Amino acid sequence: MTHQHGPRRARVTFSDAAAKQLETLISETEFHALDRALVVVSVDPDIGEPLPADSIAPQLCQYTDEIERVRLLYWVTALRTIIVVAYIEV
Question: Nearest CA to 75 among 46, 55, 54?
């Protein structure tokens, strides 16, 4: 019997600035909204829109979830780890 696995999720980690933003979350609603957005980008890191960049910095992407009112700024490493630069509630 063959086991079917879903797509491999990317590992998500937070920059220091994003980690500080996490410390300010106070409601269950905010945690739920962030968690939902993180699952989406971990399953499909290419879902975000690329932001204009220079040739030195990593390519930042922006993912916006209009339903949960969340915006994530992140970049993806060569090993497909997602580094969340900022979590911004819209």
Answer: 46
